[in-house]
Amino acid sequence: MNRLNEEAREAYFEEIFRTIKNQQKETFREKFLELHPTDQMELFQTLYKEKRAYVYQYLSAEELADIFQGLDVDMQKQVIDEIDKTYAAKMFNFMQADDAADFLSEIDDQNAKEILSAMEKVEADEVIELLSYPPQTAGAIMTKEYIAIKATDTVSEVMDHLRKLGPDAETIYYLYVVNEKDKLIGVISLRDLITAPLDETVVNLMSTQIVTIEAHTDQEEVAKIIKDYDFIAAPVVTTTNELIGIVTVDDVMDVLEEETDEDFGEISATKGATDVNISSFTAAKKRSPWIIMLMFFGLITAGVIGQFEETLEEIVLLAVFIPLIMDSAGNTGTQSLAVMVRSLATGTFEKKGLMHTVRREFGTGLMLGLICAVVLMILVPIIYGSFLLAFIVGVSLFLTLSIATIIGAVVPVAINKLKLDPAIASGPFITTVNDILGLLIYFTIATSLLQYL
Predict the structure, then answer these.
(1) Pair 88, 152 in one domain
(2) What DSSP assignment string belongs to 37-72?
(3) What is the pLDDT of residues 412-429, one digit of tens each?
(4) Would you say residue 421 lies in a domain?
């Protein structure tokens, strides 16, 4: 199974397309199964429904399972609608339990029950177990396809065991040692195993210093553990240390992508609406609560400007700098928000602490404000001929940017302390708050110096 380069892949795909068009089953199987699984999936997704029907005829349920596991949910649903239930049940029997559970959790309960009832009992029970755990926990994303061995086994016995069960395991790099009650007591790597004498027993090779993950641990914490320890896989256990599954690095990659999408949606106030496959109505429904709330915040902003109407009537030129003050405050606050959310997500915040991070962001705000103030104090007198106006705008921007960075840093921390996702302190929210504060600072300074303008 070779991963082809772009040009070679396109040419090879054309050959396979011709075998489908000419209904050459054996030639299709020979060429298609030589492809890397990623290329198989990519080719499959380019086919129309009529052409996919031939693929279902030409591939076994086991072969299709490898492709099905890599498709997105919408494409998986199409495939299920196109194949008969018997073929689908066979396919699910060959899928990794966690991948099967992921799909069944996305469809209605009735269809999921029909598929589970048609599957073989052992495979169905594993999937049902995974579905029993709360979403986004270690239990929900773990796989049941792992290798467990006994401490009394010899290296030779374990190698024989691997030859039989290894092809069906998610990974065999780590082997987990359990006692007669299936409680985890050790772990051994494949490297240590194959370099040891054949008559050596596992108990003399295994490590008893094991990093485990409890089944109800949040998936984001699971990803952090595997990342911090550079694991390929980590064992999942019950509260009584019974081994029930493993979480692999490819599961963690999916989690990180999911969490990144979620945080992006929170920060941009588009949570749940970032998927381009959803309808305009659904996207509008998901975005509208934030937009309506921000609209009311906008009314507060308008109210602030209204409170200083007399100041604006006296010096209309002050209105020219309102967008500058608002945009600068919002942009700076959003930058601090992104830094803090990232710090909380990666765990660096816990290492440095709140005061260190706030001091760093406040210092950044002071320097940014000073740079912008100096630039404005040079440009404004040249363009508008007023040094006092330059002073008002410069000082206002200096103070605004200094405070905006603190707000952008502190708000997500406060939200995190409430056990909520810090990303819900969205960019638009922080921007609007800083807009209001920036305008208050600007007009307060301008009003106090109005008699000198």
Answers:
(1) no
(2) HHHHHHHHHHS-HHHHHHHHHHS-HHHHHHHHTTS-
(3) 777 767 666 555 555 677
(4) yes
- Report yes or no: 175 and 187 within 8 Å, Cβ to Cβ: yes
Q: What is the pLDDT of residues 216-228, one digit of tens each?
A: 999 888 988 988 8
> Is residue 29 a contact partner of residue 63, using CB atoms and an 8 Å limit?
no
DSSP reduced 3-state for 187: strand
Asked if the structure places residue 239 within a domain, the reply is: yes
Give the pLDDT confidence score for residue 330 in this predicted structure: 80
Report pTM: 0.61
3-state secondary structure of 352: helix
Q: Tokens for 96, please give them.
A: 């990794």
Contact 401, 369 (CB under 8 A): yes
Bridge partners of 213, per DSSP, are 236
Measured distance CA(165)–CA(139) in Å, rounded: 22
Rounded-to-integer distance, Cα 216 and Cα 172, Å: 24
Domains in the chain: how many in total?
A: 3
The CA distance from 160 to 179, in Å, is: 19
pLDDT, residue 254, reads: 77
How many C-alpha atoms does 276 have within 13 Å on its Cβ side?
0
Are residues 432 and 303 in contact, defined by beta-carbon separation less than 8 angstroms?
A: no
Q: Are residues 229 and 294 in the same domain?
A: no
- Within 59-154, residue ranges assigned H as helices are 61-68, 73-82, 85-94, 97-104, 109-118, 121-131, 138-141
Q: Does 352 lie in the same domain as 323?
A: yes
Where a domain ends, among 248, 268, 296?
248
**Dihedrals φ, ψ of 284, to 5°?**
-65, -40
Domain match, 230 and 298 both: no
* Burial category of 452 from C-beta neighbours within 10 Å (exposed 0-12, middle 13-18, buried 19 and up): exposed
